[in-house]
Amino acid sequence: MEAAEHRRLGVDLNNATWKMLSSGGPSPEASADERDDLLYGAYASAYHWRHAEGSTVANRARAEHLVSRTATSVGRFVAGLDHGMRCLELCVENPDAVEDWDFAFAHEAIARALAGLGKRRDARQQRKVAAEKGAAIVEEDDRKVFLEEFAREPWFGV
């Protein structure tokens, strides 16, 4: 497969997955197959971004964030935490290759996964860090996007 085709598939799967998450994610009545399809879409997007034409560390970090958020939304909290931590790791190891909002989103994903796992104290701490990083996002439009997403459920009671 050509790198350009990987890029097209990565973008399409990313957009389809975010569309579902932004509309509230899978319904409580969603079947296991429907939840799996959503998660597999996020994983497939991440795979294609790894092999995409012009792929960057930022693309990889954002793909990890998407997998984390998707895993958490379908109740796979350990996977959500693992991928949220990988997102943060990529940001910390490559601060010049990512944007300020990537750090905020990494902490947000970790906080949601921890909340899903019932680790409320750690989740609240990560949520606080995410809020602080989000408030410090320099570009107003980027900050607005983060804050809108940050306000969305699920937060699992945290």
Short overview:
This protein has 158 residues and is an all-alpha fold. It is built from seven helices and no strands.
Report on this structure.
This protein is an all-alpha fold and 158 residues long. Helix content is 75%, strand content 0%. It has helices at 3-22, 32-50, 57-73, 77-93, 100-116, 120-135, 140-151. Helix 3 (57-73) packs parallel to helix 5. The mean pLDDT is 96.
C-alpha geometry: globular
- Characterize the largest beta sheet: strand count, sense, and whether it forms a barrel: none
Helix content: over 70%
Average pLDDT confidence is 96
In DSSP terms, counting alpha (H) and pi (I) runs of 4 or more, how many helices?
Answer: 7
CA-CA gap between termini: 43 Å
Main structural class: mainly alpha
Q: What percent strand?
A: under 5%
Q: What is the total tally of β strands?
A: 0
Radius of gyration: 15 Å
Sequence of secondary-structure elements? HHHHHHH
- Low-pLDDT residue spans: none
Observed structural traits:
mainly alpha, 158 residues, single chain, 75% helix
Write the topology of this structure.
Elements: H1 3-22, H2 32-50, H3 57-73, H4 77-93, H5 100-116, H6 120-135, H7 140-151
